[in-house]
TrEMBL record, chain A:
This is Multiple sugar transport system permease protein. It is found in: Cell membrane. Its main location: membrane. The chain crosses the membrane at residues 7-30, 70-92, 104-125, 153-172, 193-213, 260-280. Gene3D superfamilies: MetI-like. Belongs to the binding-protein-dependent transport system permease family. It is a multi-pass membrane protein. Residues 66-281 form the ABC transmembrane type-1 domain. InterPro entries: ABC_transporter_permease (IPR051393), MetI-like (IPR000515), MetI-like_sf (IPR035906).
UniProtKB/TrEMBL annotation, chain B:
Gene3D superfamilies: MetI-like. Coiled coil: none annotated. The chain crosses the membrane at residues 68-92, 99-123, 135-154, 175-194, 239-263. Residues 64-258 form the ABC transmembrane type-1 domain. One of its GO terms (cellular component) is plasma membrane. PROSITE patterns: ABC_TM1. Keywords: Cell membrane, Membrane, Sugar transport, Transmembrane, Transmembrane helix, Transport. Belongs to the binding-protein-dependent transport system permease family. Its main location: membrane. This is Multiple sugar transport system permease protein. It comes from Catenuloplanes indicus. PANTHER family: ABC TRANSPORTER PERMEASE PROTEIN MG189-RELATED, ABC TRANSPORTER PERMEASE PROTEIN MG189-RELATED-RELATED. The keyword Nucleotidyltransferase does not apply. GO terms for biological process: transmembrane transport.
Length: 294, 273
C-alpha cells in the first residue's frame, strides 16, 4: 500500500523531475562544459581549457558591464526598498478601503512590458525636451546620452515598477500583531522608536525576501536597457558603454557573435556572482531577520 | 484624525507619479509628429492616423495574435503542470519529499540567464529553435514558484475530505482533479494571470528564438518598430508610441479585469518568507 503511494507520488512529481533534469541540471552541466570549449556548430567543438576564463578576466567589456550592473543594482535595490516601504506605510495608515485603490495604482506600472518602459525612458528622460527635464528645469542632465547620467536615469525609471515590493510590504505590515504596537506605545515609545523596534523586525522576513529577489533580478537587467540602447537589426549600439549591462553583453556574445563557449563562461561568472551576493545577504540577514510572531 | 491629510497628500502625489507616464504615453501617441514632445496633457491637434500608420508599417495584428497564442499556451501549460506537481508535494508522504521540495524552492534562486545558452542548443537540436515552441514548452514541466504557491493552497484543503473520498474508492487522480483543483481555483487563476503577464512582456526569449517577423510576439515586434522608427531610424516617435500603447494596453486591461488575482499572488509571494 505504502509503496503504491510512493509510486503515485513520483508520478505526480514526474513533470517537474523531468523538467529539472532536462532544462536545469542538464543545461547547468552543459554550460559548465561548454565554458571550457570553443564551441562551433559547424566545424566541431574544441576543448580549450581555461582559455575562456582567461579571456574573460582580461576583457575590458566584462569589467565595464559588470561595473555598470553592480552600480545599477547598488542604487536600484535600496531605492526600491526604501520608497516601497514608505508607500506601504502610507497605504497601511490609510485604511483598507483606500489602500485598495492606491495599491492598484502603484502596481499598474509592473504590468507594463519592459519594452514600453524602455520607450518611455527614451522620451520622458530626453535631455532637451523630455518631461522630466521640463520639471527639473535647466539643472536637468542629458539622461539618455550623457554616460554619467544613463544609469541614474535607468534607476529612476526602474523604480517606477516597484509595485510588487509595495504589495509584499503592505501584506507584511497587515500581519504585524496590533498588540505589539500598543505595548510599545504604553512603554512610551515614539513613532520612530516603534517603527525601528516593532515594525522593522516584524516585517524583516518580507524585507529580506525582496532584498534577495530584487537583487537577483536587478543583476539580470536586460529588457529595458536593450530596448533603449541596442539595435537588434544590425547589432549596433546607440548609446555609450554606460548602458552595457552584463546580460546584454552575454546575449551579444552568445546570440549575435555566436561565441557560445565564451558566453557560457560569462554565464558561469554571473552564476557565481549571484550565488556569492545571495550568500552574503543570507549571512548578514541572520542578524536582523526574525521569523514567527508575524 | 486631523493628521490624515499628510497621508493623503503623499499617496496622491505618488499616484500622479505612477499614473502620469501612462497618460503621457497614450496622449503623445495621438499627437502629430511635431507635437510629440510638447507634453500637453490633451493633444492640441489629434493624430489618430498614427495607429493607421503603424498598422500598415508593421504586421501588428499578427504580432498581437502571436502574443495572445503564446501567452495562453505558456499560462495554460504552467498552470496544469504546476498544479499536478504541487499536488504530489501536498498530498503524499514519501521518502525524499522534504529534500525534493527544498530543491524546488532552491531553483527559484537560479538565474535564468545561466541556463539560457544550453537551453537554446537543446531547442536547436530538436529543430525548433526558430519556432514559438521554446517560448512556452518548458512550462509543461511546471515552474518552481507556482508549484510553491499552489502547494500552499492544497495544504489548506482539510485532509478528511481526501480521506472520505479514498474510502469511497476514489483514485489519486480523482482526489486531485475533483477535490483539490476545484477548491483551489483562486491559486490556479493567480498562476495563470501571473504567467500570462510574464509571457506577454518577455523580450529576451523572443529575441533569441524568433527570426521570422511573421512569428514575432508584440514586444519583439515593438523592438523591431523601435529599430526602424526610433533613434537609429527615422525618429518617427509618434509611430513608436502607438506601438508602445498597443504592447501595453492589452496587459493593462487584463490586469484591471483580474487585479484581485495579481495582487493576491504578489502578497502570497512575500509571505513565504
Amino acid at each position: 500500500m505504502a509503496r503504491r503511494e510512493t509510486w503515485a507520488a513520483y508520478g505526480f512529481l514526474a513533470p517537474w523531475i523531468i523538467g529539472f533534469l532536462v532544462f536545469l541540471a542538464g543545461p547547468m552541466a552543459a554550460s559548465l562544459v561548454l565554458s571550457f570549449t570553443d564551441y562551433d556548430a559547424l566545424t566541431g567543438t574544441a576543448f580549450v581549457g581555461a582559455e575562456n576564463y582567461r579571456t574573460l578576466i582580461a576583457d575590458p567589456r566584462v569589467r565595464t558591464s559588470l561595473g555598470n550592473t553592480l552600480f545599477y543594482t547598488a542604487l536600484h535595490v535600496p531605492l526600491t526598498m526604501v520608497v516601497s516601504l514608505g508607500l506601504a506605510l502610507l497605504l497601511h495608515r490609510a485604511g483598507r478601503r483606500s489602500a485598495g485603490f492606491f495599491r492598484t495604482v502603484f502596481y499598474l506600472p509592473t504590468v507594463t512590458p519592459k519594452v514600453a518602459v524602455g520607450v518611455l525612458f527614451l522620451l520622458l528622460f530626453n535631455g532637451q525636451s523630455g518631461l522630466v527635464n521640463q520639471v527639473l528645469g535647466p539643472v536637468g542632465p542629458d539622461w539618455t546620452t550623457d554616460p554619467a547620467w544613463i544609469k541614474p536615469g535607468l534607476v529612476l525609471i526602474g523604480a517606477w515598477s516597484l509595485g510588487s515590493t509595495v504589495i509584499i510590504y503592505l501584506a507584511a505590515l497587515q500581519d504585524v500583531p496590533r498588540d505589539l504596537h500598543e505595548a510599545a506605545q504604553m512603554d512610551g515609545a515614539g513613532a520612530w522608536a516603534r517603527f525601528r523596534a516593532v515594525t522593522v523586525p516584524a516585517i524583516s522576513g518580507a524585507l529580506f525576501f525582496t532584498l534577495i529577489i530584487n537583487t537577483i533580478s536587478s543583476l539580470q537587467t536586460f529588457d529595458e536597457v536593450y530596448t533603449a540602447f541596442y539595435g537588434s537589426a544590425n547589432q549596433q549600439t546607440y548609446g555609450s558603454d554606460a548602458a552595457l549591462f552584463y546580460v546584454v553583453y552575454l546575449f551579444q556574445q552568445a546570440f549575435q557573435f555566436l561565441h557560445i563557449g565564451y558566453a557560457s563562461a560569462l554565464a558561469w561568472l554571473l552564476f557565481l556572482i549571484i550565488m556569492a551576493v545571495t550568500l552574503v545577504q543570507v549571512r548578514l540577514s541572520r542578524r536582523f531577520v526574525h521569523y514567527g510572531g508575524g | 484624525m486631523a493628521r490624515r491629510w499628510p497621508i493623503w497628500t503623499g499617496l496622491a502625489l505618488a499616484a500622479v507619479v505612477f499614473t502620469y507616464p501612462f497618460a503621457w504615453l497614450v496622449s503623445a501617441s495621438l499627437k502629430p509628429r511635431p507635437d510629440v514632445f510638447d507634453n500637453a496633457f490633451i493633444p492640441r491637434e489629434w493624430a489618430p492616423e498614427n495607429y493607421v500608420t503603424i498598422w500598415s508599417a508593421a504586421p501588428v495584428l499578427t504580432w498581437l495574435t502571436n502574443s495572445v497564442v503564446v501567452a495562453l499556451a505558456a499560462a495554460g501549460t504552467v498552470t496544469v503542470s504546476s498544479a499536478i506537481v504541487a499536488f504530489g508535494f501536498a498530498y503524499f508522504r514519501f521518502p525524499g519529499r522534504n529534500a525534493l521540495f527544498a530543491l524546488v524552492v532552491g531553483t527559484m534562486m537560479l538565474p535564468g540567464a545561466v541556463t539560457m545558452i544550453p537551453t537554446y542548443l537543446i531547442w536547436n537540436e530538436l529543430g525548433l529553435a526558430t519556432t514559438q515552441v521554446p517560448l512556452w514548452a518548458q512550462n509543461l514541466f511546471g515552474s518552481a514558484f507556482y508549484i510553491f504557491l499552489i502547494r500552499q493552497f492544497f495544504l489548506g484543503v482539510p485532509r478528511e475530505l481526501f480521506e472520505a473520498a479514498r474510502v469511497d474508492g476514489a483514485g489519486y487522480w480523482r482526489l486531485f482533479w475533483r477535490i483539490a483543483v476545484p477548491l483551489c481555483r483562486p491559486a490556479l487563476i493567480v498562476t495563470f494571470v501571473f504567467e500570462l503577464r510574464a509571457s506577454w512582456s518577455d523580450l529576451l526569449r523572443p529575441l533569441i528564438y524568433l527570426r521570422d517577423p511573421a512569428l514575432f510576439t508584440m514586444p519583439r515586434g515593438m523592438k523591431a518598430i523601435l529599430d526602424q522608427f526610433g533613434q537609429a531610424g527615422e525618429a518617427r516617435w509618434e509611430v513608436v508610441l502607438a506601438g508602445a500603447v498597443l504592447t501595453t494596453v492589452p496587459m493593462i486591461v487584463a490586469f484591471l479585469l483580474c487585479q484581485r488575482y495579481f495582487i493576491e499572488g504578489v502578497a502570497t509571494q512575500g509571505r513565504k518568507g
